[in-house]
Amino acid sequence: xxxxxxxxxxxxxxxxxxxxxxxxxxxxxxxxxxxxxxxxxxxxxxxxxxxxxxxxxxxxxxxxxxxxxxxxxxxxxxxxxxxxxxxxxxxxxxxxxxxxxxxxxxxxxxxxxxxxxxxxxxxxxxxxxxxxxxxxxxxxxxxxxxxxxxxxxxxxxxxxxxxxxxxxxxxxxxxxxxxxxxxxxxxxxxxxxxxxxxxxxxxxxxxxxxxxxxxxxxxxxxxxxxxxxxxxxxxxxxxxxxxxxxxxxxxxxxxxxxxxxxxxxxxxxxxxxxxxxxxxxxxxxxxxxxxxxxxxxxxxxxxxxxxxxxxxxxxxxxxxxxxxxxxxxxxxxxxxxxxxxxxxxxxxxxxxxxxxxxxxxxxxxxx
Amino acid sequence: xxxxxxxxxxxxxxxxxxxxxxxxxxxxxxxxxxxxxxxxxxxxxxxxxxxxxxxxxxxxxxxxxxxxxxxxxxxxxxxxxxxxxxxxxxxxxxxxxxxxxxxxxxxxxxxxxxxxxxxxxxxxxxxxxxxxxxxxxxxxxxxxxxxxxxxxxxxxxxxxxxxxxxxxxxxxxxxxxxxxxxxxxxxxxxxxxxxxxxxxxxxxxxxxxxxxxxxxxxxxxxxxxxxxxxxxxxxxxxxxxxxxxxxxxxxxxxxxxxxxxxxxxxxxxxxxxxxxxxxxxxxxxxxxxxxxxxxxxxxxxxxxxxxxxxxxxxxxxxxxxxxxxxxxxxxxxxxxxxxxxxxxxxxxxxxxxxxxxxxxxxxxxxx
Lengths: 367, 367
Hints:
Two copies of one chain form a homodimer.
Chain A: E1 2-6, H1 7-17, E2 32-38, E3 41-47, E4 51-58, E5 60-63, E6 65-70, H2 71-80, E7 85-90, E8 95-100, E9 103-108, E10 127-130, H3 131-139, E11 156-162, E12 165-171, E13 175-182, E14 189-194, H4 195-204, E15 211-216, E16 220-224, E17 228-233, E18 252-257, H5 258-270, E19 279-285, E20 288-295, E21 298-305, E22 307-310, E23 313-318, H6 319-328, E24 333-338, E25 345-349, E26 355-359
Antiparallel strand pairs in A: 1-5, 1-7, 2-3, 2-6, 3-4, 4-17, 7-8, 8-9, 10-15, 11-12, 11-14, 12-13, 13-26, 15-16, 16-17, 18-22, 18-24, 19-20, 19-23, 20-21, 24-25, 25-26
Helix pairs in contact in A: 1-2, 3-4, 5-6
Domain DNA polymerase III beta sliding clamp C-terminal (chains A, B): 244-363
Keywords (chains A, B): Cytoplasm, DNA replication, DNA-binding, DNA-directed DNA polymerase, Nucleotidyltransferase, Transferase
Domain DNA polymerase III beta sliding clamp central (chains A, B): 129-239
């Protein structure tokens, strides 16, 4: 193998392919990036079996070939090189030579034959969606996935297309995040994407309106961004019927300024850190929401102007779940819907129906 | 106690006094900040016995008094309050009430009588120096102090005034940093300041040309910045006679571009991380410095244009020590002086004599 390309492009390509290299695999080959040079093009692939990322860049290829190099050290070397042309060629002793201006590295390489092959996916059915929109939808749901592996399906995000809507849903047993967008597509899709995959995908998706093409197979999802392809296995099993969890009716509705509420909750939770319970109490009165918390350190009382429609209510929460939601919402005014002190609270924007967040209350002994 | 002051000023004062609160002391009272309200002024003190920081701000004091509050939680509460007036008063049950707009906190406080008293220092002999200059001098020497406590005196910085010069010196047995400034002062001072003290002092010193007044006692140093006073014990014992370590003569002298050399060494050290030796080799030839390194991962060769006066030389270093120095120096061109492959290398600016860095070479088996 013998090729040359610019340092900048190579560095970018490594940083994309590297996102799939977790370094946690017991297989040493998976700490590497597969580099294939052919037809004046380099293809770089990183993989941890579940997730694989392939990206290509232009290069001047003098001799075709493939190698696998350690992703971390190769990435560091290329990053530290001067902004110039990089020449890379294989030597006889299982090593490559990297030359850039007056720098010359010799680095051992691994056997490309050992690198796992990517699942072949036939891209004949394509679901196309704006990168910017998908990125935004991932960001506003991914925080609610389960962190523990006790119910693996909940470590993923439901990707649901029906009735001209794309819905992403995450839930962890304590809260739920649902983000919807209207799309012009008659497909019906129901798949659960691992949280890790969406996390890396959202870093690669652009902030622009260009589309990403998505193909599903029974076990895999493929994101095609043109020069970059991401393949991930899907999570097996049935996602929870989230619609039956979201209450359709409510007894009272509170309208509040998002930032004011967030600040009050953040201050109240300072006193709730003791014993890591994050317990804060809401006392919802006419025109006023009183938030209190106490611990061995002391106690706090916050007061906030609200608009209340319906009955007064007392209810308690883990402040972390409310803070997560209030930080993600971008709108200034929000609506909170309650039924009772033991039923979930639904949080929405006052302005649109793009998302629905649900947070379970903490049941107090006095309830 | 009962006072009110602006949130911003209180927050600033806490962040200054808090720098002395390490949270590592077995005495719970030292996790607190002592707040004394008197004569429309608040005095806040943080201390870990060795180092104490006192700062004062304006306040409207309705009732004089003193309390000690946990620095961390009190700091967090004040930081999260709205930008407004904060009222603080003691209640009967060993607690204080903090009110700011619609937020109300009750926080337990500790007994001010338990708080250690600061050493009384008579400020009749004052050494005055530009804050900006001192800050800069600390920054360019502190990285070379010893991290281990095996020789406690080396965890400090020598503060030496003689012959109209202020010298700061740090050394750890492998390298030495000497920073000098010409001052208009006939004093003779020789004291060793703990590295931790200088670290916190440099965060508080301003980047402007205003002066800080310094007073020495046999056991303490006091920095007086007007509203803020910092008192630290000195390290006991004699500092190493650093002048006898710095070679006055040299066999060869290399002039190089600082950033080029830094980049070459950083790249070379990528291959030297294996086994954490950071070993890189210099091959100094006429007009060219060749830097090489190798490990199980591979090897690297860097080449750099230099001006050599004197004999050619081969010498090896721990790259970390050279990188530390080259990152601190601000000038574009530097001079490296060598005597032999087993003698220290002296690094200076080509333009001035403000600093002298010394790095010991690594002795190779082949030497």
